[in-house]
Give the backbone structure.
Amino acid sequence: MDTILLIKAAIMGVVEGLTEFLPISSTGHLILAGSLLGFHDDKAKVFDIAIQTGAIFAVILVYWQKISQTVRELPTHARARRLVANVAIGFLPAVILGLLFGKVIKAHLFIPVVVASTFILGGFIILWAERRPASRTRVFDVDEMSGLDALKVGLVQCLAMIPGTSRSGATIIGGMLLGLSRKAATDFSFFLAIPTLIGAGAYSLYKERALLSMADLPLFSVGLVVSFLAAWVCVRWLLRYIASHDFVPFAWYRIAFGIVVLATAYSGLVVWAD
């Protein structure tokens, strides 16, 4: 396989791993990076979704103690059963709306200008959410969440179908606006990502299997491995970061980056290929 193509796959893996779990939109960054690299055909779109699986394995590794404990306690502890049920409840809206509208959204909204505009809007929403009084927080741990809390966060997650929104940003910031603490919202966002991203990756590979062959295995393998390594570093850093910081820097990053993309697109300085 072409070495240049494998290098592009590695770069895309780094982008995916570093942005998947930050509130800055991995899909948006992948679209923009793919535009600059000339890596944006139909197969590349499948690749972008498939390598999310590598990132989610990093979450499973970081949260392995909590996940294994929950599995062991399922038969005997209501808390464990509630967490699993909440993840299932939160996952369902994305499945239903994704099947109904996913194809239309991918056909019309996966373009750089839409991504940039959503970046800017999302930044202002984060700034607004971070001004929320701490007294409105009512859920301080993921184990305290109700089924209704999970459903609301799951519905908010569906906003991430619009590229540039950020799945983690929607679930974390949305969870905070719904009364979850920053820690509880982040933890639930990670748990919710496990079925969501694995399901999306598996479905995309199955649906577009006619585009793929064994010759693509090195390309996808490089993307998956690099995505996993980058995400492992990022998730560990983020969990330390939220213990003493807010998401305001990410909001300003989104706004600034969105403005740069719009400015360079309209000026012709950078050709953000659709």
Residues 3-267 form one domain. The radius of gyration is 18 Å. The chain has twelve helices and no strands. The longest helix spans residues 78-108.
